Amino acid sequence: MARSSKKNNRNLAILLFIGAAIFATVALASQKTSWFNFAKGPADTPALTNLNSAGDIVTTTNPDGTMGPATFSKNASNALPSYLKGTLFFNVSSEEGNVLGANSNKTSAVSDFVNLFIVIKKIEVHIAQQGDPKTNTKPQRLSRWETLDLATPISVDLLKLADEDSPVLVAVSKLAAGRYTQVRLYIDEAFGELANEDVVQFKIPGKNGIVKVVKSFKIDAGGQTTLTMEFDPLKSIKKSGNDYILKPVIGKMQVE
C-alpha cells in the first residue's frame, strides 16, 4: 500500500513537472510572432523569417507620426540571414529640365529662389509579402514597415537636381526579400535662398511633411532594386502673402 502511494505521488510530481514545462513554453511562445520555416537557405537549411516580439508588431504608429522603427538598426530584416535579403538603393530627383531657365514657369513661386532645400529625416517602406519573388517558396503575407539606412537628416537641393537632371543617392539598405507596396518620406524642414541671398524658411502645414507614394516593387534575395522619387518643385511651392508654403508634389516614382 505504501509503495502504491509513493508511486502515485511520483506520477503526480511528473505530471506537475510536465504541466509546468508546457505552461512555460506557451508563455514564451506568446512573446514571439508566428515564424515560418518555408524559406530555405544554403544546403536547404530552414530560416526564421520573423523574430519580432508581439509588442513590436502591434506598435506601428510612433509618437512622431512615423510608422517604422526609429532607426535602420531596429528593423526586423536585420534578424534575417544575408541570403534572404537584397539591397535597396533610394534616390531623390527633381523635375527634368532647367526650372530656372527660359522655359521655367515664371508664375511659380519657385522662380523667386536660386536654391530650394528639403531636409529628409526618415524614409520607410512597407513590406506586404516576405520571401524571394524569384523562387517558388511560399511567400509570407504580413504588414510591416522598415526604416531605410539614413544615418542623419539629409539636405537635398531640388533646384540643383532639376538643373543638373541627375538624381542623388540618399540611402542604401539591406532589406528582406519580398514585395513592397508603399514608400513614406518625412521632410523635417524646407528652406530656400533668394537672389538677394536672404534665406526663407518654408511653412509645412499639417501632414504635408509626410510624402506618401503607393508603389509596388520587389526586392530579390541577393539582388539590387533602385527607387527614384522625383519631386516637382514648380508645383510644390506656393506663396501666400509673405509666406512660402511647401506642399510636396511627386511627379513619378521609378523602379529599376
How would you describe this structure to a colleague?
The protein has one domain. The protein is built from four helices and twelve strands; from the N terminus they run H-H-E-E-E-E-H-E-E-E-E-E-H-E-E-E. Strands 2, 3, 4, 6, 7 and 8 form a six-stranded antiparallel β-sheet that branches. Strands 5-1-9-12 form a four-stranded mixed β-sheet. Strand 10 and strand 11 form a beta hairpin. The radius of gyration is 26 Å and the shape is elongated.
Index terms:
12 strands, 6-stranded antiparallel sheet, elongated, 39% strand, 256 residues, alpha+beta
Write the layout of secondary structure elements.
Layout: H1 2-29, H2 54-58, E1 85-94, E2 113-130, E3 140-147, E4 154-157, H3 158-164, E5 168-176, E6 178-194, E7 199-201, E8 210-219, E9 224-231, H4 233-236, E10 237-240, E11 243-246, E12 250-255
Parallel strand pairs: 1-9
Antiparallel strand pairs: 1-5, 2-3, 2-4, 2-6, 6-7, 6-8, 9-12, 10-11
